[in-house]
Each structure stands twice: as structure tokens, then as C-alpha cells.
Specification:
Protein name: Protein kinase domain-containing protein
Mean pLDDT: 88
InterPro entries: Kinase-like_dom_sf (IPR011009), Prot_kinase_dom (IPR000719), Ser-Thr/Tyr_kinase_cat_dom (IPR001245), Ser/Thr_Kinases-Pseudokinases (IPR051681)
Structural class: mainly alpha
Low-confidence stretches: none
GO molecular function: ATP binding; protein serine/threonine kinase activity
Number of helices: 5
Pfam families: PK_Tyr_Ser-Thr
Number of strands: 0
Domain Protein kinase: 1-91
Radius of gyration: 15 Å
């Protein structure tokens, strides 16, 4: 994220981070850090590793994938292909059995 905040072009890894933040917004129903100013201090804290807290009630398989997408080390984040495969598996599993506890990453 530091590279983007410094004006560099987004990377595939930063896109995955953004997807993780979208996942967080879906579970929380609000923007990340909506309770504080979006300023240089927040940018610095994000670069140092601050992440929004997991929302109570979020299925564990969902927050596990979300946390992987938000990993501070970009090389630890899943690729778009891995996300596609994982989400596709979830769709198939949900069609077979709508219990989210049966899902896996």
C-alpha cells in the first residue's frame, strides 16, 4: 500500500488488498475507518499494518480469506486466480448446502 500512497500505479497485489477491504465492508455494512478522519495519519497507520477489526458474526471462512487479502506482506496475498477458484468453490458449495460452516478456503 505504501507504493500507492506515494503516487505509484496500483499493482495486482494492491487490487487484492482492495478486494479484502470490499469484503470487510460487506461484513460490516460501513466504510473502513468511518469513525476517523481519512488523513495522512491513517495512511501511515495502514502502511504500518493497521487493519479493521473483524466484525462479530462474520463466518470464519469469509474472514480468513479477507485477512489473507489484507496481509501486510503483498506476496502473502492470494492471486486473482486463487480468489476466483475459492469463490467459485464457495458458490458450488452453497448451492449444494447453504450452511457457511461447511465452506473452506
Amino acid at each position: 500500500m505504501r507504493k500507492i500512497f506515494n503516487g505509484n500505479a496500483p499493482t495486482k497485489e494492491s487490487d487484492i488488498y482492495s478486494f479484502g477491504m470490499v469484503m470487510w465492508m460487506l461484513s460490516a455494512g460501513v466504510r473502513p475507518y468511518c469513525d476517523r478522519p481519512h488523513n495522512k495519519q491513517l495512511i501511515q497507520e495502514i502502511c504500518l499494518g493497521i487493519r479493521p477489526s473483524v466484525v462479530d458474526g462474520t463466518p470464519s471462512v469469509f474472514f480468513s480469506l479477507m485477512l489473507q487479502c489484507l496481509d501486510a506482506n503483498p506476496s502473502n496475498r492470494p492471486t486473482a486466480s486463487q480468489l476466483n477458484e475459492c469463490l467459485g468453490n464457495w458458490v458450488i458449495a452453497i448451492c449444494d448446502n447453504p450452511d457457511p460452516s461447511d465452506l473452506s478456503i
